[in-house]
Amino acid sequence: MIYRLTCFVMFLLLLAIMGYEVRADDFRRERNNMVRNQIQGRGIRDQATLQAMRSVPRHLYVPAVQRRFAYQDRPLPIGYGQTISQPYIVAYMTEIIQPHSNQKVLEIGTGSGYQAAVLAEIIDQVYTIEIIRPLGEQARIKLEAQYSNAHVMIGDGYHGWEEHAPFDAIVVTAAAEYIPPPLIEQLKEGGRMIIPVGSPFQMQQLMLVEKKKGGEISTRSLMPVRFVPFERDR
């Protein structure tokens, strides 16, 4: 009787493992399709960015009830009035900073941790700040379990992370009404910042900010976007 029960338990475990592997294969297939159709198909060419988008399991960075939508090209709610950006925008913002392995990058607006994970696949050190504590704590658990080069701080991203400045690039994932001066100061000469600028809950402009040699700043509008507002400590 005990032998039969043990065999039955082992059979159930085997079925569970097989089911997990099949679902993992399904997610991998969806992820590869996402990269091919939504990202490469829309002009993203940077190979490091494409490989990172293939590698990071986006379904683990969305709430369980949203997982069936994880690889669709749209933002998804993650709670607290925040969203995870659509895959194409994540890839575009990653490519535009010209990522490579020996960089140090700051992200403002950790959210679920997905953008930081994509950056951590490529870049030497990623520093990311989230103002909403529960989101920041959840993201820290996920990121620090997978990446030794991803560092999460809970706080007001307006002030950046001066302790680790200057940064080769800064990625801002929330819409600010203007570009925060501390972030410009913490951007290295020759560095790039990408940030959505505009009024909350309206169409904004995704801006590329470049700091030239000598500290000269240039800005360029890239495309209209819609991001959640840049939140501040009150």
Question: What keyword list fits this structure?
Answer:
234 residues, alpha/beta, Rossmann fold, 7-stranded mixed beta sheet, two-stranded antiparallel sheet
Summed up, the helix count is: 6
CATH superfamily: Vaccinia Virus protein VP39
Structural class: alpha/beta
In CATH terms, what is the fold-level topology?
Answer: Rossmann fold
Radius of gyration: 20 Å
Structure notes:
This protein has a single domain, classed as Vaccinia Virus protein VP39 (Rossmann fold). It has 234 residues and is α/β, with parallel strands linked by helices. The chain has 6 helices and 9 strands; from the N terminus they run H-H-E-E-H-E-H-E-H-E-E-H-E-E-E. A 7-stranded mixed beta sheet has the order 5-4-3-6-7-8-9. Strands 1-2 form a two-stranded antiparallel sheet. It is globular. It is 36% helix and 24% strand. About 5% of the residues have low confidence. The termini are far apart. The longest helix has 38 residues.
What is the fold's blueprint, element by element?
Elements: H1 2-39, H2 47-55, E1 76-79, E2 82-84, H3 87-96, E3 104-108, H4 114-120, E4 125-130, H5 133-146, E5 150-154, E6 167-172, H6 181-186, E7 187-197, E8 204-211, E9 217-225
Parallel strand pairs: 3-4, 3-6, 4-5, 6-7
Antiparallel strand pairs: 1-2, 7-8, 8-9
Question: How would you briefly describe this protein structure?
Answer:
The chain has 234 residues and is of the alpha/beta class. The chain has six helices and nine strands, in the order ααββαβαβαββαβββ. It has a seven-stranded mixed β-sheet.
